[in-house]
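Reopening this ticket.

The earlier resolution said the output was attached, but the attachment link was broken on my side. Pasting everything inline this time so it's all in one place.
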Amino acid sequence: MIKVILIKTEKEIKGQLYRLICKKNLLLLKNYVIRSFMQIRHLRHNSIDYEKWDNAINLSVNQLGYGFSWYLDIVSPDWEALVSDEYEYIMPLTVKRKYGIPYIVQPMLTQQLGIFSSKKISEEIIQLFIKEIPYYSYEINLNENNNFNTEISELPNYILNLNEHYELIYKKYSKNTIRNIEKARKQNLSVQHNISIDEFVNFYNSTERNFISSDGLLLEKLLTTGSSKNAIALSGVKNSDNKLISALCIFVTGKRIVYLLPVSNAEGKKSSAMFLQVDDIICNNAGTDMILDFEGSRIEGIARFYKGFGAVNHPYYILKKFRPDFLVGKI
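Inline output:
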């Protein structure tokens, strides 16, 4: 084989350098224009206009329910914000303090936040907001529309589009998923819609105890407020003795159904009850413009469960800066 080596002329090299310089200058000019016409303000909690904030989230092209003011009030009571102009671009800052030191941490039950807008969120916009973060230490899960750097850390998130008829979606289930659904059906399990908050909380507390905050039960606050806003729905699976063996909390805003909090006891896991619950959600929402957001997991077994229903990975991104040991972990 003859290897051909192409040697560029001096004219070609100068031309390439000229194009690169022009491209760089154009980017610098673009950034200058954005900075000149966009004012980003850091707002403390009591200075945030909730009406403008929720309207911005509601109209955003990348709407996520985690960004609504009522949700942030529960998971991060002292949250602050970066906003541009008349709330055209907004970014919640979930601030905590330890030893008087402010830092930003991703709250419990809040997979993604970042920048939201009804307009395009360009790389330049993202960079400007990041530069305006007023704290030295932060860990923020940016949403999938906030990718500005191919080298930034990412985490998986599995999404299932429900716009096809149920039969077509079902055909895409994995063999293992179909086998587990059939297994659950043979045991005369029944899906119960609209179980009570007390029933869910009691069942959850008998199985898991992850979401107890220092000021009370975070989970109960979220369920109560979310239910009053028709954003939270609770369902369960009961066995032939009418005993609850699995329960699921979904978070519904806009066109997104978030698989927020599943819980199963030993019998529920053995009988594949959660497979039956997810299939029930898909069946009831198939043929609509809704999507089922499983929230991702790096645990292979859980990821396999999501992918078994045909869900596709839509990664989101983690932004970290100066995370000393005493600020890392649950505080």
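Reporter confirms the inline version is readable. The chain has two domains: 15-154+317-327, 158-314. The radius of gyration is 24 Å.
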